[in-house]
Amino acid sequence: MMPRWLILAGAVIVAALVSMAVHVPLQEWYEALLEARNSELAVIQWRTPTEVPWVMVLAWGTILLPTTGVMLVAVGLWEKLPGSAWWVKGISLGLLLLLVEGMLFRQPIMNAAVGNPLWAVFGNAVDSWGATMAQAMVLALGISFWKRRADHGSQ
Fold first, then answer.
1. Are residues 110 and 40 in the same domain?
2. Residues 73 and 34 reside in one and the same domain
3. What are φ and ψ of residue 9, in 5° steps?
4. In this structure, is the dihedral angle defined by the CA atoms of residues 86, 154, 150 and 98, taken in order, positive or negative?
5. Residues 103, 128 contacting (CB under 8 angstroms)
């Protein structure tokens, strides 16, 4: 009989290979599309989101969707996260999110591998790490408070 850990390891390897087999051709297709439409891109007056107020309203409003998803996952995993203190669970949740999103190691490594200067790799990583860890810590505090009230019979 095959050990359970070997089954999970195999699933991880096959899922990663399938993900890359889909990602690489789609990335190549997208780059070809950008190249073919480069003349259209050249005339666009690019602006940062902070220059367009309605884009910032949209950004602030839509961030609630993934944050709700993270909260639902965190509630489901709460008892499995290491530690008993809310802040330990928050750090664990943040690290797990960064790992799942590929931002903990993969994206910084890939950013460096394609030739981005280390300051740009570091700046991109700090942005992702900071926002994700802040979100995880606030959610952990909120879930901890919610669970404490639920344990004491409050609605």
1. no
2. no
3. -60, -40
4. negative
5. yes
Could you give the number of structural domains in the chain? 2
Residue 80 sits in the same domain as residue 36: no
The residue segments making up the domain with residue 58 are 50-155
Q: In which region does residue 147 sit, left (phi positive, over 0), alpha (psi from -120 to 50) or beta (all else)?
A: alpha
pLDDT single digits (tens) 83-114: 999 999 999 999 999 999 999 999 999 999 99
Answer yes or no: do 21 and 74 share one domain: no
pLDDT of residue 131: 93
Asked if residue 63 and residue 34 are part of one domain, the reply reads: no
- Round to whole Å and give the CA distance between 67 and 132: 10
**Token pair in block for residue 136:** 């995880």
- Summarised one tens digit per residue, pLDDT across range 1-27 is 888 889 888 888 988 888 888 988 998
Q: Are residues 87 and 22 in the same domain?
A: no
pLDDT of residue 152: 74
Instruction: Report the alpha-carbon distance of residue 138 to residue 86 in Å, rounded.
Output: 10
- Asked if 81 and 89 count as a contact pair (C-beta separation under 8 A), the reply is yes
Cα atoms in the 13 Å half-sphere on the side-chain side of 6: 3
